[in-house]
Design a protein that fits this description.
The protein has 18 helices and 26 strands. By secondary structure, the chain is α/β, with parallel strands linked by helices. Among the domains are: 115 residues, Rossmann fold; 96 residues, ANL, C-terminal domain (GMP Synthetase, Chain A, domain 3, 2-Layer Sandwich); 101 residues, Orthogonal Bundle (Non-ribosomal Peptide Synthetase Peptidyl Carrier Protein, Chain A), CATH 1.10.1200.10. A hairpin with a 2-residue loop joins strand 1 and strand 2. Helix 1 packs across helix 2 and helix 2 crosses helix 3.
């Protein structure tokens, strides 16, 4: 029987066979396979020297970069598992995840390291550590890694009010890699993108299959990954052949014109409902994928036929290699073809369970009632088999929500809301009939209480990631209930300016720039008014909407506000000052003749 080969061994084989081939590209940084392998080996030895070994979890508090790739590979080479941590997460959420995962070592970098909460874990700053690694061996340390060994832990939103850590194994990861390489004919000639946010399991899929075959992985810079026009340009100039994008962005790319000789051959999407088909004649194939983190990223996959193919929304395809999909009724028995039921996943990709949570693990990872080997993961998703054998996704059986590709358990937000002084009860729902889904929080206040919405949002931002902070707070006298006592989300009122939890300190725009910016923000964020003290991100803005705002500011004012500047100046007042500064700098850089022409234009425009 051939020896089982782990993911780090596959990458090492590529380094040995093609040492000078490019492994990772990020801006001007280019990392060859030899450099990647040597740096990862040296870091793995360093980690082993600090006591890191089999079954231990190492936190990776790093942005997408060559350093994050080296670190993840090093952790696997050391025989340990990695926990990806988005540096933008609130400190309290990071603390919970690191404590729950029993992490003793966290890799971070520069200013991000200073943001980590202090605790028993040691923080290794990549900037300081990297120069020290030359003193460690460049060969791979010996470790015993099997298919059952823990490879990584990813935390998702939890219905109990705290995130839950999914434990994925090397066997599940290897199955994902092998299927991906076979299904999409990936070779060393491919150029793939690494665009997913750190901590989102799509990043697992965007990295390891390509390092396993000697392809190159390219990391976009700045706001490229959230701007459709910029993504298209980047994909073309970098000659990317395989990329992954969430449906909201993938659907926009389908509307663009593409040169017939584009290098892009596969556009992968998933993590949310795909509602658009490609037009005939696109030079690449669109592939829709489905899979929870508990199923090691992808459980089903299918190529999407062009629009008009059958008049239906795209399916989620069929089960991938060594994966079984069951659609069962409430008695855990198969439903007839065409009937809906709960989707269960079995096979090589099923995770171990939840970190330090045996009760929830036993509830969600169940014995196969049909007599097959191994456990099944019950997804809570509703689906049905079509006559073609493909699977149609029909939504959720519970209250779980998908926002920007992330799973959100409303109870986690509700628990946070209910801790705020003056909030007696709350509910969370998704605003209907919006192209961009928005979370709406409904709050019942304690009689006589006055709640500051800005303070409430700031508290939520300290506990929850930005995609879980409600875009709007609505005050209600009571929560509507169903006959069995549950909150009737369908009966909750639509959010309006009249029922919004208002800030008594509303300050109307005072200058022409503030008024024009407010005019840009209101339709973008679907709000009726904007105070100069309002924070773009606390009103429901995020990086994707931020790029749209930047584009509109450019059209309206003729200046280029960066996404970083928007993060640094998020209130309408601060934004206005920054726009005025950019306008002044632009005017000062003009020649005297250009200034006269601009003055004449402005004078005539006011006549």
């Amino acid at each position: 029987m051939p020896q089982w080969i782990s993911v780090p061994q596959l990458a090492a084989q590529q380094a040995a066979a093609h040492p000078e081939a490019v492994a990772v590209v990020s801006g001007s940084q280019r990392l060859t396979y030899a450099e990647l392998d040597r740096s990862a080996n040296q870091l793995a030895h360093y980690l082993r020297a600090t006591g890191v070994g089999e079954e231990q979890v190492v936190g990776l508090h790093l942005e997408r970069s060559p350093a994050s790739v080296i670190s993840a590979l090093a952790v696997l080479k050391a025989g340990a598992a990695y926990l990806p941590l988005d540096p933008s997460l609130p400190a309290e959420r990071l603390r919970y995840m690191l404590t729950d995962a029993n992490v003793s070592v966290v890799m971070s970098q520069g200013s991000n390291a200073e943001l980590l909460p202090k605790h028993t874990w040691s923080v290794l700053d990549w900037m300081r550590l990297h120069p020290l690694l030359d003193g460690y061996p460049s060969d791979c340390p010996r470790s015993v890694v099997t298919a059952e060994s823990l490879a990584y832990v990813i935390y998702t939103s939890g219905s109990t009010g705290q995130p839950k850590g999914v434990e994925a194994t090397h066997g599940g990861l290897r199955n994902l890699i092998d299927w991906h390489i076979r299904a999409f004919k990936v070779t060393s000639a491919d150029r793939a993108s690494l665009q997913a946010v750190v901590g989102f399991d799509a990043a697992v899929w965007e990295l390891w299959p390509y390092l396993a075959v000697g392809a190159s992985v390219h990391i976009p810079q700045g706001s490229v990954r959230s701007n459709p026009d910029a993504i298209r340009e980047w994909l073309l100039t970098q000659k990317i052949s395989v990329t992954f994008l969430p449906p909201a962005l993938a659907e926009q790319l389908l509307l663009f014109e593409w040169p017939s000789d584009t290098a892009l051959r596969i556009l992968l999407t998933g993590a949310d409902t795909l509602r658009r088909r490609p037009s005939p004649g696109l030079p690449f194939t669109l592939v829709n994928n489905y899979g929870p983190t508990e199923g090691t990223v992808v459980a089903t996959s299918g190529r999407v036929k062009p629009e008009g193919a059958d008049g239906h929304m795209p399916t989620i395809g069929r089960a991938i290699d060594n994966t079984q999909i069951y659609i069962l009724d409430e008695m855990m028995q198969p439903v007839p073809e065409g009937d809906s039921g709960e989707l269960y996943i079995g096979g090589a990709g099923v995770a171990r369970g939840y970190r330090n949570n045996p009760v929830l693990t036993a509830e969600k990872f169940v014995r196969n009632p049909l007599g097959g080997s191994g456990r099944l993961y019950r997804t809570g998703d509703r689906a049905r088999f079509l006559p073609s054998g493909e699977i149609e996704f029909l939504g959720r059986l519970d209250d779980q929500i998908k926002i920007r590709g992330y799973r959100v358990e409303p109870n986690e937000i509700i628990n946070a809301l209910n801790t705020y002084p003056g909030v007696q009860a709350s509910a969370v729902a998704v605003e209907a009939d919006k192209a961009e889904k928005r979370l709406i929080a409904y709050v019942v206040l304690t009689p006589g209480a006055k709640v500051d919405p800005t303070g409430l949002r700031q508290m939520l931002s300290r506990q929850l990631p930005d995609y879980m902070v409600p875009a709007m707070l609505v005050r209600v006298d009571a929560l509507p209930l169903t006959a069995n006592g549950k909150v009737d989300c369908a009966a909750l009122p639509a959010p309006t300016a009249a029922n919004a939890l208002a800030d008594d300190r509303f300050v109307a725009p005072r200058t022409m720039v503030e008024e024009r910016l407010a005019g840009l923000l209101k339709p973008l964020l679907h709000v009726d008014r904007v105070s100069v003290k309002d924070n773009f991100f606390l009103l429901g803005g995020h990086s994707l909407l931020g790029t749209q705002l930047i584009s509109r500011i450019s059209e309206s004012f003729g200046v280029e506000l960066s996404l970083l500047s928007l993060f640094d100046h998020p209130t309408l007042e601060e934004m206005s000052v920054e726009v005025e500064r950019l306008i002044l700098a632009k005017v000062e850089a003009m020649s005297a003749e250009d200034r006269r022409a601009l003055s004449q234009f402005a004078f005539e425009g006011n006549q």
